[in-house]
Specification:
The chain is mainly alpha-helical. The protein is built from twelve helices and no strands.
Length: 287
């Protein structure tokens, strides 16, 4: 496998997941039992409704096979550091956001490889790359659960140091993520130009639908304003770095980043066109 997919992508994902583990404690997982309704709804939205919406969007917009499969990879990803940041900016419940991100990231070690294999085979048919579900699951464990655990361990052993380095880690991960997006776009520029008219609107619609589902389902469940904000954001913002990494690992390309990563790269830009106004609205609602 090329250096980019074999080394750079895993390294970037490891750093980002390590930063997620910083400040995370066992109490964050215990909080699930204290707010079962909000957590349960957020989990259902992420694990069940998000892939369904992704599948419908990829199908109804008639996306090309590789881009449809890439859209499904994105839809199967859990939330990430950026969803936690957005929740904080919007005045939502950061503990709930962190709990959802952490737990669903662990769940996705099983769900993402299995459903990715099915999705790639469904949309790409005979052109689909072989997906080793077990190997992908083990890789995800090493790239997500292990660095999160190391971040938690550092938090427990050196809390003062954790407080000092966390802001810098967030800045570093933001820059690394931006570089990945640019690399994915540059490697697929022709495909990007040929499909942006369809793929761009498709991803905007997916984000809008997921945010709406998050708000409406939370209100129907009788959740408070902060929890409504959190569930909506966790439903609508996925871990883009993981999506790009999984797409690159599956394709096993010789140069650059494959078309499977393009939907995640574009989504990482288009999503914020909706998320920023959403944050402004929810900040007023929770004030």
């Amino acid at each position: 496998m090329p250096l980019l997919v074999d080394l750079v992508l895993p390294a970037v994902l490891t750093v980002i997941m390590f930063s997620l583990g910083l400040g995370l404690t066992g109490d964050d997982f215990a909080r699930v039992a204290k707010a079962p309704r909000a957590f349960g709804l957020g989990a259902v939205n992420q694990v069940i409704l998000l892939p369904v919406v992704g599948f419908l969007v990829a199908t109804l917009f008639g996306l090309p096979p590789e881009l449809a499969a890439g859209t499904m990879i994105l839809a199967l990803c859990p939330g990430g550091v950026m969803s936690n940041v957005a929740t904080r900016m919007a005045g939502g419940s950061v503990p709930l956001s962190v709990s959802l991100t952490a737990v669903i990231s662990l769940v996705s070690i099983v769900t993402l490889p299995v459903l990715t294999a099915l999705s790639v085979r469904h949309f790409m048919g005979s052109e689909a790359p072989e997906v080793d579900v077990t190997a992908l699951g083990v890789t995800m464990f090493l790239l997500t659960a292990v660095p999160v655990g190391l971040g938690m361990l550092l938090t427990r052993l050196a809390p003062a140091a954790t407080v000092r380095i966390t802001p810098w880690m967030h800045r570093i991960t933001t820059v690394l993520f931006a570089v990945l997006i640019l690399l994915a776009l540059a490697a697929n520029w022709g495909l990007f130009l040929a499909n942006i008219g369809t793929l761009g609107p498709a991803l905007v619609v997916m984000t809008a639908v997921l945010l709406a589902i998050g708000v409406l389902s939370s209100r129907a469940a009788g959740l408070g304003p902060k929890e409504v904000t959190t569930v909506a954001i966790e439903s609508g913002i996925q871990n883009g770095t993981l999506g790009i990494a999984v797409g690159g690992i599956i394709a096993g390309v010789t140069t650059g980043l494959p078309p499977l990563t393009l939907p995640t790269a574009i989504y990482s830009v288009t999503a914020w066109a909706l998320v920023i106004p959403f944050i402004t609205w929810r900040r007023r609602a929770t004030a």
